[in-house]
User: What shape does this take?
Amino acid sequence: MAFASDQITFASLVKVAGEQGWPENLVLEGGIGEAVTALGGVATPQVLVLDISDSADPIADIGALAEVCDEGTRVIALGQINDVNLYRELMDLGVLDYLLKPVSTEAMGALILKAIEQPEIIEEENKTGRLVAVIGARGGVGASTVAVNTAWMIAHEQNIRVALVDLDLYFGSIALSLDLEPGRGFREALENPSRIDGLFIERAMVRESDHLFVLGAEEPLENNISFDSAAVELLLEKLRASFDCVIVDLPRSAVTAHSSVLAQASMIGIVSDATLASMRDTMRLKEFTKKNAPAAENVVIVNRSGAAKIGELSKSDFERGAELAVDYLIPYEVKTAAQSTNSGKALGQVAKNGKLVTLLRDLSRQFSGSEAEVVKPHIWDRLLKRGE
Assistant: This one.
């Protein structure tokens, strides 16, 4: 059943009903007040689409609606207020989703069908995946490389469902590293957080494999993108409800503006190289993350060790100067890195062993929180791959 307070929304819902073979007389004119009156004392539908645009107090009105709805009714709310706080309050009250008008017939139809076919979605949303933030102490230290390859190993070697998110909407290189075209809709979701839902995630993310999904963008430089931390937080909440592990490549320029994002992290990986400037900035980043995300575990990764023949700090000098311990000292292997870059494949695909890959594999297990051995493919999987 659906209630629409304007003719455009009404027509869209009637079209959805017609396309699915549902009775069109179940689409009614009116808002939440009319819904409360109509549903009082009768069995409520499995899915209820409700236009709350005319409501002066949507939260109170949804509470009144709950008094007349049967348990298990799935409510999809439509409105005109683009406010992440309103979205969260509605979700807390048990609303399945809140969509900003105007809503296309295609999007509405898909969401209603999903609500009908997957009634277990509310219970699944109680699941919270692990969030790992990867931050480069300076540009060019290989933070994106670490994020990409640990995510790939978690997905392919540990068989864990992973979302890999690139928050550099202009110059992000995660999709490029895996020879993928960035999806569409990332910017729109961040600028209109009320549109962030399960359907958006499916549309905007690019599937690298059965277990690895990538979310990134290559926005034109002339586009002025404006979004706040609340939108990023909401996006990450949705991803953590759908994935076992979420790895975020967070540009250091965005760390202070989106410091609240770090509070969700189980682990923060700070990637540096063995230079004096990176040593200083690693120390500053660790102090900042400890203050803003005290519950998160910090991991310090010195990457590209040996890339510069002259002027590199030794591990002991780096630790003494930064007053912290280096958890991973990852060597620079020119041939392996070049093969990976030129082929658009992960390091684990071009080199099964070697110190570089072995250390990244250890780091991937720490990122995922899994100390178990890597799950080896079944013999049938190996035989089938030989025949491809």
Remarks:
- The chain has two domains: 2-124, 130-386.
- The first helix runs from residue 7 to 20.
